[in-house]
Write a structure and sequence with these properties.
By secondary structure, the protein is an all-alpha fold. The chain contains eleven helices and no strands. The protein has helices at 3-25, 32-39, 43-49, 53-76, 82-93, 96-99, 104-116, 118-145, 153-173, 178-181, 183-194. The radius of gyration is 19 Å and the shape is elongated.
């Protein structure tokens, strides 16, 4: 394996272990020494790839983006027809699998860090910008295919993301409440109904 490729593989392994340490122990205990211990390597190897924990956090954000992009692209790319694509997108983003793409402890840690660290905040904004752009593209295509409908894709996408994010939080706060668990299946027909008017 070429050196550059090997370094990329090693960096990904480090980020994946960083992710696991956050899941298990929280960010406070996610030290470079702890990650090195899990990988059975010297902490100096981690420092060779990442100058500090902040750099590792930024790579974690890219890792998270990649996980969501894989989920989205793998399912959507094969579907033809804008209505079917929209229906499938709504199925995906209101599914339990989508909300579990990234462990909530890691995701909330990143949101919290974004309030304290402008680099992390910009990375989060970039992640959401990609998500918004992907959804807007799909809803703009739907609007083009259905010119008789008066749809504002930009506003609709932001509403969908807000509802999905809120549902994700409440599902975790009330895991035994079937009303929260079933809201995704309730919301999808409402959104599809908006798209028919």
């Amino acid at each position: 394996m070429p050196r550059g490729k090997k370094a990329e593989v090693r960096k990904r392994e480090i980020v994946e272990q960083f992710y696991q340490v956050i899941v298990e122990d929280g960010l406070e205990r996610a030290s470079l020494a702890r990650i090195a211990e899990r990988l059975s390597v010297s902490p100096s190897l981690l420092i060779h790839h990442f100058k500090n924990k902040d750099e590792l956090i930024l790579q974690l954000m890219d890792y998270i983006l990649g996980k969501y992009a894989e989920s989205f692209s793998a399912m959507i790319d094969a579907i033809q027809g804008s209505r079917q694509r929209i229906s499938s997108i709504l199925d995906l983003i209101f599914s339990r699998e989508w909300t579990k793409t990234i462990d909530d402890r890691v995701y909330i840690t990143c949101l919290h860090l974004g309030q304290q660290n402008n680099k992390v905040k910009r990375r989060l904004q970039g992640m959401y910008r990609i998500y918004i752009d992907m959804l807007e593209k799909e809803f703009e295509q739907y609007a083009d295919d259905n010119p008789e409908l008066e749809i504002e894709p930009e506003k609709l996408v932001r509403l969908i993301i807000s509802v999905q994010e809120g549902l994700d939080i409440f599902k975790d706060l009330f895991p035994d409440d079937r009303n929260f668990q079933d809201l995704g299946s309730y919301v999808k027909p409402l959104i599809l109904n908006i798209l028919k008017t």
